[in-house]
Amino acid sequence: xxxxxxxxxxxxxxxxxxxxxxxxxxxxxxxxxxxxxxxxxxxxxxxxxxxxxxxxxxxxxxxxxxxxxxxxxxxxxxxxxxxxxxxxxxxxxxxxxxxxxxxxxxxxxxxxxxxxxxxxxxxxxxxxxxxxxxxxxxxxxxxxxxxxxxxxxxxxxxxxxxxxxxxxxxxxxxxxxxxxxxxxxxxxxxxxxxxxxxxxxxxxxxxxxxxxxxxxxxxxxxxxxxxxxxxxxxxxxxxxxxxxxxxxxxxxxxxxxxxxxxxxxxxxxxxxxxxxxxxxxxxxxxxxxxxxxxxxxxxxxxxxxxxxxxxxxxxxxxxxxxxxx
Length: 325
Ligand code: FPP
Ligand code: MG
Known about the structure:
Elements: H1 3-10, H2 12-24, H3 31-41, H4 48-59, H5 67-89, E1 93-94, E2 97-98, H6 100-104, H7 106-125, H8 130-152, H9 161-186, H10 191-218, H11 221-224, H12 230-233, H13 239-247, H14 250-261, H15 267-279, H16 282-300, H17 308-322
Antiparallel strand pairs: 1-2
Helix pairs in contact: 1-17, 2-5, 4-5, 4-9, 4-17, 5-7, 5-8, 8-9, 9-10, 10-16, 16-17
Bound molecules: farnesyl diphosphate (FPP) and magnesium ion.
The site of farnesyl diphosphate has 17 residues, from helix 5, helix 7, helix 8 and helix 9.
């Protein structure tokens, strides 16, 4: 069974409510906003962030009716960031469909991202909970920092593992961390609870991006829903390549850098470099690293007694390693 099918089966009721809310807040008097919004948000999407939020709220014994509406804050920010990211990457495909920038152009895609981002802020503002709003806005700010940092490291073949980790922590993990911490803030939990959930989300988020970057070297477009080898083509030096380069002889490493940085690499060179990364042990090394972040995330839930929401969170956490798209 595909690993996500299990998540789908166990969370069907929550996913129905989440998807209803995502559709509801999308309404606008401008039809293009609704068209791009439905295309980008509805249908595909794993809804990991809303699911994490719902289960964390339940773990904190928060049972308010607004859980599902508030969960959309995080999917909106995530989708807004992907709309912008696809413009930056000039991407044609997202979530197994043509990307919004491909269908409607860069201008419309960026503005739709702005709309969703601001929509998420106004939903967060509706809580009248300043620490909640602060956490959401700080996460979105740090995502932008991470993305700009990634931009400055594009085509930098000397990117170190630490620099890479800093980028993925900011651009991806910080939002997952905010998702989980916000549930503790909303429920008025003790600071230790917020801290535990914040660490849970952060470690899960780091593992998520490690696997995302690994799948870019190992998966197929049919499975992954976006072209593979995309990072290398975009000049993104991610951990699979960083680990592989570190094991090469200086001369060979410099030859490859010259070939790819100067834009002289052809299809065959890309294929060969991807094969090299796949055969070099970097993939297993990264899977082990991701597993250690997932284990660390699970440890953060140790202070919570056994319960259905805790088991749901641990299942989502395990899924991060098993996922194939
Ligand atoms: C996808 O990663 C992109 C992100 C995780 C973050 C993008 C962040 C921004 C554009 C800045 C913040 C913007 C807003 C609206 C808050 P990836 O490129 O590794 O994944 P991909 O392969 O799916 O494109
Ligand atoms: Mg991208």
